[in-house]
Amino acid sequence: MSESTAFAMPLRRSPFEGHKPGEQATASGQIGVRLHADTVPGLLLISTWPSGSIALRNVMARTLGASAPARCGQVAQVQAGMLLCTGPEEYLLLTSPGPSRLQELRGHIPGHLGSVTDLGHARCRIHMEGAQCRDTLSKLFALDLREAAWPVGELRQTGHHHVPCTALRLGVDSFDLLVFSTYAFDQLGTLIDAALEYGVGLRLGAEPPA
């Protein structure tokens, strides 16, 4: 590889670089919270304005093969992946990485109808599960974690220390947190600190479970 070629290649670094995977158990050997932090290369923001909301939903139903969620906080499984309603005229599509899905959606959603923006570089995902993950979350987020208030399969827009976060409930004690890449390192560190009293395990990237 020539020197000029090396300089032309983009450098990629995980926002979580510096954290060490492993386990920090309690004195009794318990691990109450397990974390898995990784990037989210396939994430698209689909948005419009109030006058284009119905037209955009019709286009997405035809293009994605399923109706878009009806209200903020709801999530729908579609052919392309998972569609999250994050605002009155705003959706996030968790999908496979690459330009093909972006180009396909932009072909169906012209500028007068809405916009499709690639956020794969700008978000990271922290998955957390375990018997004490709700206790950990309650230290940081002003959320009602009861199932009646936050059903499995719904998301909540939240944050802590003035940093926003999109939280998706996958199970009673299983959550995905979509965080800004810029703050991902510190947000993971904060979660680890909050979970230490319960015992915490951490995986990074595509590392297999221990």
Shape type: globular
Low-confidence stretches: none
How much beta, percentage-wise? 25-35%
Instruction: Give me the number of helical elements.
Output: 5
What is the share of helical residues?
10-25%
The radius of gyration is 19 Å
Average of per-residue pLDDT values: 90
Largest sheet: 7 strands, mixed
Q: Write out the strand line-up for the largest beta sheet, numbering strands in chain order.
A: 1-12-2-8-11-10-9
Order of helices and strands: HEEEHEEEHEEHEEEHE
Number of beta-strand segments? 12
Distance between the termini: 37 Å
List keywords for this structure.
alpha+beta, seven-stranded mixed sheet, five-stranded antiparallel sheet, 5 helices, 12 strands, globular
Describe what this molecule looks like in 3D.
The structure is a single chain. Helix content is 23%, strand content 33%. By secondary structure, the chain is of the alpha+beta class. The strands form 2 sheets. The chain has a 7-stranded mixed β-sheet, covered by helices on one side. The chain has a 5-stranded antiparallel β-sheet with strand order 4-5-6-3-7, with helices on one face. The chain starts with a helix and ends in a 6-residue tail after the last strand.
